[in-house]
Amino acid sequence: MEKKTAFIYSDIYLKHNTGKSHPERKERLTAIVEHLNRTGLMEELIQAPIRLPTRQEIALVHPESYIDQLQRDIEGGATYLDPDTRVSPESYDVALHAVGGALTAVDQVLQGRVHTAFCAVRPPGHHAEPNKAMGFCLFNNVAIAARYAQHTYNLEKILIIDWDVHHGNGTQDIFYEDPTVFYFSIHQYPWYPGTGGSEERGAGKGKGFTLNIPVPAGTGDQEYISVFNSILRKQALAYAPDLILISAGFDAHRDDPLSHTRVTTEGFRSLSEIVSQIAQEKCEGRIVSVLEGGYNLQALAESVEAHLRVLRREV
Ligand SMILES: [Zn+2]
């Protein structure tokens, strides 16, 4: 059976200008959009207008003092928020729209307009901590989406699956003591940002609800698929989430310049299938997938296509 899938995108995302040599550049999104147009897949996807988040919605994760400081810094002409995180005058507004894209996707899925949604947004989010921009990320889009889904739609349990090749230190930090959001990450290790060891399992009431699978350089499809089929599947079915969010970075691809893992486009298709099966078994197929990294333009565009084709069908 075919499913309805939303593709959340706006040209506004191109206005976050990181300069010519930065890997997290606007061409990432234009490559995805052009590829989806060329393959005809775009016509099959549901487009939805992106709404801006309210201040209260962002404050579900980031203190208002951080929101204000970020706006002041960027509008005051800051160019770097940390050694990796380049911004331009439009970046604050674009970052608001990236959060808004994720919230729009949650609305689309939880109001039953679509079954699944993919957000082609930038800047990415999973390195952003409540009080700190880092690793190309300003606001933690996925974390805000998780909190928003809980507050607005009364969901009890959310599973975040983060397959970006870098550990999502920000997302882990936000939910580390929270059993209502299960954070799963598979990532190259040791590697940027340095966190994500297997001993990091959550704390307090959240103990056991963070699961890190660090993998060495050279890890490929077979190992990734095996982790998803055994470890993730078992944990996810036992957890029984009401919604699955994916921090969908495609920088674990073998052609990606920012990693040494060897996942292929086919590999991302398989990972998407396993997640889709879990969603069908436990949460009526509901998935909101939000772009994180992915820096080889062709690998990124083709992997997003493979991912979207799985989100569109029963598996
Ligand atoms: Zn990454």
Short description:
The protein is 38% helix and 14% strand.
Walk me through what this model shows.
This protein is an alpha/beta fold. It has one domain: Histone deacetylase domain (Arginase, Chain A), CATH 3.40.800.20. It has helices at residues 27-39, 55-58, 64-75, 91-110, 141-153, 169-175, 221-239, 265-282, 297-311, and strands spanning 5-8, 46-47, 80-82, 85-86, 116-119, 158-162, 181-188, 210-215, 243-248, 287-291. Strands 2-1-5-10-9-6-7-8 form an eight-stranded parallel sheet, with helices on both faces. Strands 3-4 form a two-stranded antiparallel sheet. Helix 6 (169-175) links the parallel strand 6 (158-162) and strand 7 (181-188). Helix 4 (91-110) packs across helix 5, helix 7 (221-239) packs parallel to helix 8 (265-282) and helix 8 (265-282) packs parallel to helix 9. The longest helix has 20 residues, at 91-110. The protein is globular. The chain binds zinc ion.
